[in-house]
Amino acid sequence: MPELPEMETYRKLVSQEVLDLPIQNVIVNREKSINIESEQFIKELVGRKIIFVERRGKYLVFHLDNGGRLLLHLRLGGLMYVGMEEDRPDRNTQINIEFAGKTLYFIGLRLGFLHLLSAKQVDEELADLGPDPFDRRLTEDRFVSLLQGRRGSLKTTLINQHIISGIGNCYSDEIAFAAELRPDVKLQDLSEESLRRLYTAMRSVLTEAIEGGGYMELPLTVHDQLTGGYNDQCKVYDREGEPCVRCGTAVVKTEISGHKAFYCPNCQHDH
Predict the structure, then answer these.
(1) What is the enclosing helix (H) or strand (E) of 210?
(2) Which CATH class is domain 140-263?
(3) S-S: 247 plus which of 136, 251, 256, 267, CB 3.0-4.6 Å?
(4) DSSP string, 180-195
(5) Which candidate, 143, 123, 122, 145, places its Cα nearest to that of 132?
(6) Residue among 39, 5, 46 nearest 22 (CA)
(7) pLDDT tens figures, 30-77
């Protein structure tokens, strides 16, 4: 599932492709992917322009020139592509937004959605989201106070969108590795020093992943050289049996509350 770095990469790249272009046509191939009748959805969008793309956690919010919003959550298997029909991935598209000379394709939205909402409705929809890791108000001290006193594993805490938004399976493991903490360590057992180390690891891993284009390998456009560039830089995620880049011990895979997790049993600790 796309996480914060993947959605931030999409946000930057799609902004370069479609901002301020009049929407000429909209095709809805799956009504369950939208929140209103297809006819109304199409009528509301044709002639409009996307003037800004915002990311909130794992969501993208497309700001329209009439004040409306398109709220996107890709969930598992979802992706976007911008280009011509002959260039796009050979997969079913649920929604196509056509501009002059190019189309924005929403693909794999079996679990995801693209909803047309007002600005207020978007705020209401996302009201329960935890702070973004890059929110200026999420200082190191606030991060520590947010996590101190909580119970549960480090992994399940990091992927809980109500606590901190944007982190999922991949980057929770990468952050734990960078902080030299096991993903199954109990949060209530961590010292303040460990929590501060975790904050630094979170910011550095996510920054590096954004700069590398995230781990999802399918490009947004035919000329996209950025998307997926971080996949080969993952230190533990999906690296079961490979030697740890820090100490050489084999990376192991486990399961924590139904979520797969990867870590080094030698240089990641429980304190």
Answers:
(1) helix 192-211
(2) mainly alpha
(3) 267
(4) TB-TTSBGGG--HHHH
(5) 143
(6) 46
(7) 999 999 999 999 999 999 999 999 999 999 999 999 999 999 999 988
